């Protein structure tokens, strides 16, 4: 709450919660990216036709054979159809996801700010080892004092988990200096598959949209950790983290790279590697 004096009267203005405001803004950006990618795919399908589009991306449509009623019995027909159904689910890339819920108050047992930070890193490390897809933080009600300011346990938990999951080359762009990350140097790095080094090539790579002039009809510029920036196919707000699929197959001699913005799930499905976790908050277990 902010108090101001207007005409001799004391007026009280309520300030919006920065955490919920940032979370709402991130959800809006994700929705816009998904809509843009969906529209682009539909445009390509309408232009090329569905069979040509599937063939270009290496997807072969399956045709279900009719069972011979005179041959095998009904039991064998059912078992064969169930087996074909399971194979189709596996070939379509369907998979199960793992989510865990953790109360933010778990860090209250740590006696110092340094130990609280190290405890969060241990939880993130365990989640990465077991390929957890989503971490849900159940909000805590209290606050604890750090050497700089009073910190909310939920904000502390979320900020440090996201910091560890983010590739190191994006830390400076996505995480400004704040009290929650004062002892981030004590945390053990996760070193998960999408944490690439500058000399490691990958068709998919995490990046952040940077401030660079864009010509009309071109997409935003993205810093993907290479010495050269990448120009994408969509215009996204500056400072947004995105997943980029490069058009090149190796390091290029051009002045910049070219790529398309895709969903992180596509990178996970194509490479077959663990692609990190997402973090969200909940008021209680029912919202998980």
Automatic annotation (TrEMBL):
Recorded superkingdom: Eukaryota
Signal peptide limits: none
Disordered: annotated segments: 56-94
Stored InterPro entries: Alpha/beta_knot_MTases (IPR029028), NA-bd_OB-fold (IPR012340), Put_MeTrfase-C9orf114-like (IPR003750), tRNA_m1G_MTases_N (IPR029026)
PANTHER family attached to this UniProt entry: CLASS IV SAM-BINDING METHYLTRANSFERASE-RELATED (PTHR12150), METHYLTRANSFERASE C9ORF114-RELATED (PTHR12150:SF13)
Family label: Belongs to the class IV-like SAM-binding methyltransferase superfamily.
Name the record gives this protein: Uncharacterized protein
Natural source organism: Euplotes harpa
């Amino acid at each position: 709450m902010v108090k101001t004096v207007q005409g001799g009267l004391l007026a009280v203005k309520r300030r919006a919660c920065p955490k919920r405001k940032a979370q709402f803004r991130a959800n809006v950006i994700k929705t816009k990216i998904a809509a843009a990618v969906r529209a682009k795919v539909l445009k390509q399908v309408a232009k090329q036709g569905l069979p040509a589009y599937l063939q270009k991306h290496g997807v072969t449509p399956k045709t279900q054979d009719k069972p011979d009623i005179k041959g095998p019995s009904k039991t064998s027909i059912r078992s064969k159809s169930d087996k074909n159904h399971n194979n189709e689910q596996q070939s379509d890339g369907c998979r199960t996801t793992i989510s865990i819920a953790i109360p933010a108050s778990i860090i209250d047992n740590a006696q110092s700010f340094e130990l609280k930070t190290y405890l969060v890193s241990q939880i993130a490390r365990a989640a990465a080892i077991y390929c957890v897809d989503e971490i849900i933080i159940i909000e805590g009600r209290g606050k604890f004092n750090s050497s700089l300011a009073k910190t909310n346990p939920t904000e502390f938990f979320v900020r440090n988990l996201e910091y560890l999951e983010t590739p190191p080359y994006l830390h400076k762009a996505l995480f400004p200096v704040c009290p929650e990350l004062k002892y981030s140097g004590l945390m053990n790095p996760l070193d998960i598959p999408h944490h690439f080094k500058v000399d490691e090539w990958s068709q998919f790579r995490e990046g952040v949209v940077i401030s660079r002039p864009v010509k009309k009809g071109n997409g935003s510029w993205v810093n993907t950790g290479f010495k050269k920036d990448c120009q994408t196919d969509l215009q996204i707000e500056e400072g947004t983290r995105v997943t980029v699929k490069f058009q090149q197959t190796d390091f290029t001699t051009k002045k910049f790279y070219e790529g398309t913005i895709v969903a992180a799930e596509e990178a996970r499905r194509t490479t077959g590697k663990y692609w990190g976790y997402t973090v969200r908050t909940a008021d209680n277990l029912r919202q998980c």
